[in-house]
Design goal:
237 residues; mainly alpha; 4 strands; 79% helix; CT398_CC_hairpin; Oxidative_Scav/Glycosyltrans; Zf-RING_7
């Protein structure tokens, strides 16, 4: 393999490594963000539960107001009953009193029901707060791990950039421009191997004449189908 082709192969491999760092960092940060998103979701749920509890307490306050009205009504009926003498009026008052007592009992049962719901909501809130605390406690450790992983990637990337700079300084500018032109559309497949007499960029079969040039590796040869730069791997047939 001639010098220029070897440089292109090396440059392509370096560019592939450089381009792999961004998704690696994104993946690492995604794990951290998932934990932060969990906390945000828990906070939203806690806020929702708090609002529901406030609404339930408002319902209890409203029901208590009705209970006071019912109690006052029962007392008022009791006073009226002692004052009336007509059997018909007494029956009417008794019916009114029974209705008020039924309403009072129903109101008390409703308060008990609402208080049970509030208790369950408070239990749910406690569970959410406990889960949030657990995630927050683990978040610091995860943040430190993420920072260490990103630092390791940055150190590795810095070394790769140094290798690229040294390689670029020794490369023919016309060949480099040719490579960059192909890389604009081919991305990390600008330079690809030929395997089983096929371009591993477009996977089309290479004709015998072009394949013979690739095997010799005396010149830079491009795929007649897609235009990618081709080379013959020494470990492949």
């Amino acid at each position: 393999m001639n010098k220029y082709l070897q440089q292109l192969v090396s440059l392509s491999q370096i560019d592939q490594k450089i381009d792999s760092y961004a998704p690696r960092i994104e993946s690492i940060n995604r794990n951290l963000q998932l934990k932060k998103d969990e906390i945000i979701a828990i906070d939203e749920n806690i806020e929702k539960v708090d609002n529901e509890i406030s609404e339930l307490k408002a319902q209890i306050a409203n029901t208590n107001s009705h209970i006071n009205e019912f109690n006052a009504k029962i007392k008022e009926i009791s006073k009226k009953t002692s004052a009336v003498k007509s059997e018909k009026e007494i029956k009417a008052l008794n019916l009114e009193e029974d209705l008020a007592k039924d309403q009072l009992e129903a109101a008390n049962e409703e308060i008990n029901r609402l208080e049970r719901i509030i208790d369950s909501k408070n239990e749910l809130k406690s569970e959410l707060e406990m889960k949030k605390t657990q995630i927050q406690n683990s978040l610091e450790g995860i943040s430190n791990e993420v920072a260490d992983e990103i630092k390791a990637i940055d150190d590795e990337r810095s070394k790769i950039y140094d290798q690229k700079e040294k390689l670029l300084a020794d490369m023919n500018q016309k060949i480099l421009t040719f490579y960059e032109k192909i890389r604009k559309w081919a991305k990390n497949t600008a330079v690809v191997p030929v395997r089983k007499q096929a371009c591993y960029g477009c996977f089309m079969k290479i004709n015998d004449k072009t394949y013979a040039h690739i095997i010799k590796s005396d010149d830079i040869t491009t795929c007649p189908h897609c235009g990618r730069i081709l080379y013959k791997e020494t470990t492949q047939e």
